[in-house]
Design a protein that fits this description.
By secondary structure, this protein is an alpha+beta fold. The chain has two helices and four strands, in the order E-H-E-E-E-H. It has one domain.
Length: about 80
C-alpha cells in the first residue's frame, strides 16, 4: 500500500503480543522493559520497533518513525 502511494517503507511497528510471537519464531532476544525497542534483523532492511500496545502491526515510513520517536523514548 505504501508503494502505491509512492512512499518507501522504513520500519514495522509491532505490539507486545505480536513481538512475542515474532521473537519466539525468529529467536530474536526479547527484553521486557522500555516503551519501544529498535532491532535491525534481516527483514528486508526494515527496522522492527516494539510499541506499547498489545496487538499492533503497521509498516511505516521514516517520517512516521521520526514522528513516533518524538512521542516516546527509543531505548
Amino acid at each position: 500500500m505504501l508503494q502505491e502511494q509512492g512512499k518507501i517503507a522504513s520500519a514495522v511497528l509491532v505490539g507486545h503480543e505480536d513481538w512475542l510471537d515474532f521473537s519466539t519464531q525468529s529467536e530474536v532476544s526479547y527484553t521486557p522493559f522500555g516503551s519501544a525497542r529498535r532491532y535491525q534483523p534481516a527483514l528486508g532492511g526494515l527496522q522492527l520497533i516494539r510499541v506499547d500496545q498489545m496487538h499492533y502491526l503497521k509498516v511505516v515510513t521514516q517520517a512516521e518513525v521520526n514522528e513516533y520517536a518524538q512521542q516516546v523514548q527509543f531505548i
